[in-house]
Amino acid sequence: MSRRLAVRWGLVLATVLALALIVTLRREQPSFDEKTAPMLLHASAGERVAARGFSVRVGKVKLAHAYLIDGQQRGDPGREVRADGVWLSALVEVERSHTNGYVAAQLRTRDGRTYRAAPNERPDLKGFNLTDTYLVAGLPANGAYFFDVPANALEGASLQLYAGNSAPAQLDHLVDITLGLDAAKVKALRAEATPLLDLRTPEPTE
User: Fold this and answer.
1) Which of 22, 87, 128, 142 is the most exposed place for a label (fewest CB within 10 A)?
2) For residue 148, how many C-alpha atoms fall within 13 Å in the half-sphere facing its CB?
3) DSSP assignment, residue 121?
4) 24 and 48 belong to one structural domain
């Protein structure tokens, strides 16, 4: 009787252990969202990155509290474009590879929050603000992406770029550019930031 009981308890224990192993394995398996998430391509500012559908090189970043841009009509006084937080601009050279289309950008903070680049009209800099700019394949575009972000969100932030003009597509490339925004760099950028950065078109010379 005791032998049968021992066998039964042995089977029960083996079953429990097997079920625990199955649960553990299922927990360790990636979720559907993780399986279909964009594929990260890591690089640093200054490096050229070739992603699916586009290539990109990120240059300098700059801070400003407000921009002064052209008026609505020629001769109008300039218009101020103020940030809710602080303006961060990133100079970028970008090129669509095989098909015409868009390349979008977002700033990812150290705690995982993302801030989409400001729309093409904020600031309204024709041909320079790259947000929602339609790119022709094979023709590099030089300009900048602009971000209105909280001043305390800069340290550790990275710049992410992807094909399209909505959200990063599943299983597509998401380029993640390290900007080197450590405490010292952010402090230096803040010291250089002007209250009003003049981005107006220069007057033609005679």
Assistant:
1) 22
2) 12
3) B
4) no
